[in-house]
Amino acid sequence: MRFRRMYSTLLSVSMITIGLFGVGQAAAADDDALVRILTKAFLAQNFAAYCAQFNPDIANTTRGKEGNISQLVQHIRSDVIEGLSKENAEIVIRRSADAARAGALLAIRRFYQSDLSLQRQEIAAWCTLSIPSDIVEYVQDHDGQHDQFDRAIAAAKKAP
Rounded distance, CA 90 to CA 98, Å? Predict the structure, then answer.
């Protein structure tokens, strides 16, 4: 539940910040829905990659049916872009990656402060105590509700 709440806030802010709503690309699919699905996966992957410097075992402790978070993201990415034109797939991937990067930076920057030692301790604690459980929650949601993920992707691709 925490990951969903955090993701929802970060996604909204990052998509607005980098202007991803209404960018003017016409497509048969609901690109915004596909971007949201892929952004959530990329955000979890970004947190895992960043936090690996403080928690080197994060990839092993957040594994699911598809493997580690990078393998899961590759699986979701493939599902999201399957059947899209090359141009549309590139747009969805780029928008998702940009939104996830902005969201991850916003999350990390909330720890910034003048005392760099304290800042590093707080980020390390976040990466060790919060992020792994958030990623596990996301992985378990995907593993346990895979059919819902597939239906959401299919519905987005059918949207006018």
Answer: 12
- pLDDT number for residue 1: 59
Instruction: Show the CA angle centred on residue 22, arms to residues 89 and 92, nearest 5°.
Output: 15
pLDDT tens digits for 55-83?
999 988 999 999 999 999 999 999 999 99
CA nearest neighbour of 143 among 83, 92, 68, 77: 68
Q: pLDDT confidence of 52, banded at 50, 70, 90?
A: very high
| Residue 118: exposure state from Cβ atoms within 10 A (0-12, 13-18, ≥19) | exposed
Which residue matches tokens 């991850």? Answer: 104
* C-alpha to C-alpha distance for 84 and 89, rounded to whole angstroms: 6
Residue type, 153: I
